[in-house]
Amino acid sequence: MEKLHANFRLPLRSYDLEFSLDVEGTVALVGPSGAGKTSVLRAVTGLVKPASGRIALDSSAWFDSERKIFLKPDERRVGLVFQEYALFPHMSVRENVAYAGRHRVDEFLERFRISHLAGARPTELSGGERQRVALARALARDPGVLLLDEPLSALDANTKIAVRGELQELLREFGLPTLLVTHDYEDAASLADHVGVIVDGHLRQFASPQELVAHPADGFVASFTGANLLRGTAHRREDELTVISLESGETVYSTDQGDGAVGVVVYPWEVLVGRSHQPDSALNVIEGEIRSLVRVGNRVRIRIGPLTAEVTDASVEKLGLAVGGRAVASFKATGTRLVSYR
Amino acid sequence: MVPVIAIFSHVPPSSLFHQLTTKVVKDALIVSGKTIVVAQIVTLLVGTPTAYFFASRRFPGRAILVTLVELPIVLPPAVAGLGLIVAFDRFGLIGRHWPWLASHVAFNQTAVVFAILLVSAPFYVRQGIAAFEAVDPSLVSASRTLGAGPVKTFFRVTLPLARSGLAAGLALSLARGLGEFGATIMFAGNLQGKTQTLPLAVYTQFESNLDAALAMSALLVVISFAILFSLKASGLWLRTRPVVVAGRG
């Protein structure tokens, strides 16, 4: 797989966007609106020109302020899927996909399951269909990098879960370095191998989704990242509870419905921490070594096995918790949510 | 509405049709037809890039420049005609530097075209700016990221999406150009078969042959009605934005 290198400074209206990142696999940029996320995509595509820095795909430079290189968007091997998809309203689905090149159009229509919509206009499509057309159109150009701007925000909650699953599959299938932008941490964690948190034009933290929850760099990252996302396989049971075998080996229960590959979402403040297992109403118990203790403001984030819990300083002291010691984390089945994960 | 009905009720329709075949009316039809076609072509060729330029660029003084371009819309046509006369005068702004051009634009059909252009083209440019500005910028960006250069982007995305707005502008300028009177009579004169357009012929015939004047008036009413009605039917009337379907990015 190729690697996208981006290191540049771009003055924006209220601050300078300073960005440095190497993109391999799928990387998500998360942050509040106005943080500069979309500007990163615009700079990588060449729709705006940074003041200084270098943007390159492997060894071929797209932008290099020292060597005075600035390639126009049409000269870069980049596929961008716009937030509202930006499909050409005066063209059919087929014409949209064929816009970048007439070869292999049928193959792409087939692959994205939009062959039956070839003659339709974008206005006649559902949100999920529009996204597939936008992806097909961007990928038909045979780009070296795929950029997705808020790929799921234009969809309603129900469609979103299904489309997110499709997107995961496609990203894996195409195996392109992918940079996606979202304000939703859950989308980022479920789609990306690594997540960058960007605030006011600066990358606050760059880490795996698990790392971000366990070791947030600051209070903002902590509040933004929010939830644990535990991968596992769900089996439905007679008594309506869903049993999930986690990849880390434990078994947990959820009141949410789910089957097959799922992600279990648990918020750190929903997790109780003790030295030993006490009988209580929490159905889910994970026992393990304390891998880290990180202070975030007046709270402490404790990583136990695959899980991160958030407790007060006082609790840490009362229980005598320390890195390397053993602890028990527990949470209620009603405190979990299941999201699709393939 | 009363004057319009009056025109059609004053003489029987058979007389109207008969009058349309007289020499003076035929001459005026030919002059008007030729000059309006040339004016519309020039409007398209020069007005389209002008409108696109103003829609896609922001620079100091742009608002003033746009206002100057639109000014003839509200200017009395006689003032426009006088402006043309002094510009093409031997000592005028154009006459002084390009005497050859000035000598070829005087009391002929080129002068008629200039008069029509001056008062009608601003309608097209004004509507064209609005039409180009209404094209979703993310569609233009999308075209660029899909490997299309600026030229392909303009012809495949921008122009087709602005087309309905441009068509409305062209229709408005056609209607305005057909009715042009003041600037033409001042700058090009009123010579039958040479510079006498339909409105000038109406004015001239009104004293000698009222039926001929009425016939031409009726014709102008029908044409104007057809232009306005087709604009309304296509939903473009009084609409500064053409149909843009996609959301903004």
Summary of the model, kept short:
The complex is a heterodimer of chains A (342) and B (249). Chain A is of the alpha+beta class and 342 residues long. Chain A is built from 9 helices and 21 strands.
Q: Report the end-to-end length of chain B measured between terminal Cα atoms.
A: 47 Å
Protein chains sharing the most extensive interface: A-B, 30 and 22 residues
Structural Rg of chain A: 22 Å
- Percentage of residues in DSSP E strands of chain A: 35-45%
Work out the number of β strands of chain A. Answer: 21
Structural class of chain B: mainly alpha
Q: List the strand order in the largest sheet of chain A.
A: 7-8-9-3-10-11
What is the helical fraction of chain B, as a range of percent? Answer: over 70%
Structure description:
The complex is a heterodimer of chains A (342) and B (249). Chain A is an alpha+beta fold and 342 residues long. Chain A has nine helices and 21 strands. The radius of gyration of chain A is 22 Å and the shape is globular. Chain B is mostly helical and 249 residues long. Helices cover 73% and strands 0% of the residues of chain B. Chain B has twelve helices and no strands. Classes of the chains: A alpha+beta (342), B mainly alpha (249). Chains A and B meet through strand 7 of A and helix 8 and helix 9 of B.
